Amino acid sequence: MTHLEVEVCGLRLKNPTMLASGVFDETGKSMLAVAKAGAGAIVTKSIGMEPRPGHPNPSVVELEHGLLNAMGLPNPGIKLYASEIKEAKKGGVPVIGSVFGGTEEEIAELARLVVEAGADAVELNLSCPHAKGYGAEIGSSPEAVESICKLAKRRTKGPVFAKLTPNTPSIADLARAAERGGADGIVAINTLKGMAIDTDAKMPILGNKIGGLSGPAVKPVGVRCVFEIYEAVRIPVVGVGGIVTGRDAIEYIMAGASAVQIGTAVWSEGPIVFSKVCKEISKFMKDNQYQTVKEIVGVAHPGKR
Questions:
Q1: Is 70 exceeded by the pLDDT of residue 156?
Q2: How far does Cα 303 stand from its chain's mean position?
Q3: pLDDT of the residue at 127
């Protein structure tokens, strides 16, 4: 292994960065571009059983320190998207299929189908804050999280990651529930529920009124959540939320993340952000005499320094 290579839930990554779900992953070609730009793994957009148009525009608001979006999980459905997964696989990096559904049965079946389509692992989207009847609405209950993970694990042979919501009193409780259900890893966090109002029009800007906040503004919340989850479970954690630089990634890794996902920064800087972040991680490791990324995981915790 090179000094940047990591293994997460049996997936071997050339570096600890992943493309986060929902950005630059609409097509196989866009995911290929991200793989070529240096990402260690790709997470697909969240896919449902049937085509879904998403919420009406405006669906994205650019803020000073991030984005507020209410896309509403638009996707072509698993049957049509299967060909995009096969195309993305040509990039030579692990492809993780993100799935969502309105029932436990639907999510578990989608987990099976996305692996059948070629995905190397599954990310259960239990945390979208702006799609009624999906995501955080069913992923805020520890009992539901445990049950969904258990059923998904029965249906698929690949690793299963549970992506959790920060819009909860205790993300550690959700992580413990996912671990009890057999999840192989945790992804934290999804976006924070938010709103923007047009003061001239005197009305919410987003067509859906409420959206999810991402980008640098949410990084302190994401780091805190990863820190708490790392102390609560034994399975690996993947950190996501506001990563723009190598230092941002290192912060998550020190909090306990085995790898990180980058989303909003791909939107703002393009796929080149992956190679930039990796170079900065590498320099940090050299300057601080770390030989492997694994040596850094969790060092911010008492007793690990």
A1: yes
A2: 28
A3: 64
Full DSSP string of 228-276? HHHHH-SS-EEEESS--SHHHHHHHHHHTEEEEEE-HHHHHH-TTHHHH
Active site residue 128: yes
Please state, in angstroms and rounded to a whole number, the distance separating the CA atoms of residues 43 and 99.
Answer: 10
Region 150-174: mean pLDDT is 95
Exactly one of 9, 128, 149, 225 is catalytic; name it.
128
Structure token digits, residue 152: 């998904």
Domains of the chain, first to last = 6-52+72-193+213-295 (3.20.20.70)
The secondary element (H helix, E strand) that includes residue 147 is helix 142-155
Coil, helix or strand at residue 115: helix
**Cα 223 to chain centroid, rounded:** 14
How far does the chain reach from its first CA to its final CA, in angstroms?
A: 24
pTM over 0.70: yes
When pLDDT is cut at 50, 70 and 90, the band that residue 63 belongs to is very high
Q: What is the pLDDT of residue 137?
A: 58
Which amino acid, 295? E
Inform me whether the pLDDT recorded for 2 exceeds 70.
no
Residue 303 CB-density burial (10 A; 0-12 exposed, 13-18 middle, 19+ buried): exposed
Q: Which residue has the tokens 């993947």?
A: 238
Tokens in use for 154? 């029965």
| pLDDT average, residue stretch 13-24 | 96
